[in-house]
Structure formats: C-alpha cells, structure tokens
Write a structure and sequence with these properties.
Layout lengths: L4 E14 L2 E14 L3 E5 L6 H8 L7 E6 L2 E2 L5 H10 L1 E4 L11 H11 L4 H14 L15 H13 L5 E5 L7 H18 L2 E5 L3 H6 L2 E6 L2 E4 L4 H7 L3
Parallel strand pairs: 3-8, 3-9, 6-7, 7-8
Antiparallel strand pairs: 1-2, 1-4, 4-5, 9-10
Bound molecules: adenosine-5'-triphosphate (ATP).
Length: 240
C-alpha cells in the first residue's frame, strides 16, 4: 500500500533571541510523517523536542522553513483556518493536561466534538465510550480537581482523539501513568493507527513506549536523526 504523507517538515529552523544572544534550537529539520505511522521523538532535556512539536501543531512559528499538513502550508494559513485545523485535523496531548476545571471528565472529552458542531448527546456518548475504553467508567462525572494526575492524563488523551484527528501530537503522554495505564494508552494508539490511519508523533522519555513505536528519532544538536537505539540506550536519554 502506498504511504500517504500527512505532515511534511521542510528545512525548519527555530532560534530564540534574548538581547544579543541567539539560541538556535532547530537547525534544518526535515521529516515526513505518514498516515497511520507511530513516531517517537527522543532526546535530552532542552534539545528542542517540544519546540518542534509546537511547530508541527501551528502553536509556534518556525524562524524559517515549512510545515505542511496534507500539502497545506500551515504558516500561510489564516488564523481562522489554523483554528479549524487544530480542532479538526490535529489532536494534542500536553504534559500538563489543560482540562477545563469546571467541566466533568465526559464534558471535557466531548468539548472538541461540540466545538465542531456534533450534536450534544452524540458527542457525550462518544466521549463516554472513550473514557470507558481507558478504564474511567467510574469517573465520568468527576471534575478534574476530583481526579488523580494519571486519571486527568487519560481524560486529556481521549479528548485529543474524539474528533478522529489525522495526526496526534503528544508531549510525554504517559508521563504520569503507571505501567498498566501506559500499556492501555499504547494499545489505544495502536488501534487508532491501524483502524483510522491516525498518525502519532510522540515526544517521550518513556523508553518502553518509544521502543514500541514504528520509528524512533533522536533530537540532537538541533537535528533529527533516525536511531536504532533499543530499550537500554533510550533509558539513558530518559534520565530527565
Ligand atoms: N520561548 C522561549 N524563549 C527562549 N528560549 C526558549 C523558549 N522556548 C524554549 N526555549 C529554549 O529552547 C530549548 C529547547 O526547548 P524545548 O522545550 O523544545 O526542549 P525539550 O527537548 O522539549 O525539553 P524537555 O525534554 O525538558 O521538555 C531550551 O534550551 C529552551 O530553554
């Protein structure tokens, strides 16, 4: 089967300026992510992994270079179009969950579908199914303050999946999870990648998770390098 490119990153550079000091975080990064592909990005703390993920998700602008989603240049898009892309085509899982504090778990998960105009009962039903899938059937109506860190993380993960995005960008998705919950999340990733062709780019220090992805890339000196590192070697990078 011919692989379809979902995301193309071309010669992306990113520098930060602080007075006279310029820090070049990304140096000519090139990457193509294909439909249904699971990609892990590893690398030491401060190497630029989150910066790249933000550029992929239209949340930060490259200093130069291009990011294209299914051929559409993300940085030529209007603000309205970027909002639409973020809600419809991309799913975000952050290190800090960014759940809405006054809404229940099921309402938080349903929110991106409601924003997209899905009928309320339909959206809530879909949200409920996803929460059950990650072992939260007993927490549907709890607000984030009543959930543990790991439970909040699972809510945030399935919220990113409700609109069946083409690409999910995840920053440390299993950071707060025990091994069993981490495995459930991995299985969900696997299932969606296979069934819906959802692509996943996962920034992680979790060597278990990284080694299960289709491809592992290492961020080093501002560039991405294919790596064949296995469990133990990745663990060195995971010392963060
Ligand atoms: N807004 C900013 N202004 C200046 N420097 C920044 C800014 N954002 C990030 N940086 C710097 O860019 C570098 C890369 O940061 P980034 O968050 O992408 O690293 P990371 O690989 O995701 O790290 P970690 O694994 O610790 O999350 C760091 O040195 C950081 O201090």
């Amino acid at each position: 089967m011919k692989q379809q490119a979902i995301l193309e990153i071309e010669n992306v550079c990113k520098s930060y300026h602080d007075g006279d000091v310029t820090t070049q975080v990304l140096k000519n990064v090139n990457l193509t992510v294909y439909s249904g592909e699971q990609l892990a990005i590893v690398g030491s703390s401060g190497s630029g992994k989150s910066t790249l993920l933000h550029i992929m998700g239209t949340l930060d602008k490259p200093t130069s270079g291009k990011a294209m989603l299914e051929g559409e240049d993300l940085y030529q898009a209007t603000a309205a179009r970027k909002n639409q892309i973020r809600n419809q085509d991309l799913g975000f899982i952050y290190q800090f969950h960014h759940l809405l504090p006054e809404f229940s778990a099921v309402e938080n998960v349903a929110m991106p579908a409601l924003i997209q105009g899905v009928n309320r009962s339909h959206a809530l039903e879909k949200a409920k199914k996803l929460l059950v899938r990650v072992g939260l059937s007993h927490r549907l109506n709890h607000i984030p303050a009543e959930l543990s860190g790991g439970e909040r993380q699972r809510v945030a993960i399935v919220r990113a999946l409700i609109n069946s995005p083409k690409l999910v960008l995840a920053d440390e998705p299993t950071g707060n999870l025990d091994a069993k919950s981490g495995e459930t999340i991995y299985q969900l990733i696997q299932e969606l990648a296979e069934q819906l062709g959802t692509a996943f780019v996962v920034v992680t220090h979790d060597n278990q998770l990284a080694s299960k992805m289709d491809r592992q890339l290492q961020m080093k000196d501002g560039s991405l390098q294919e790596t064949t590192l296995q469990h133990n070697e990745l663990a060195v990078e995971g010392a963060n």
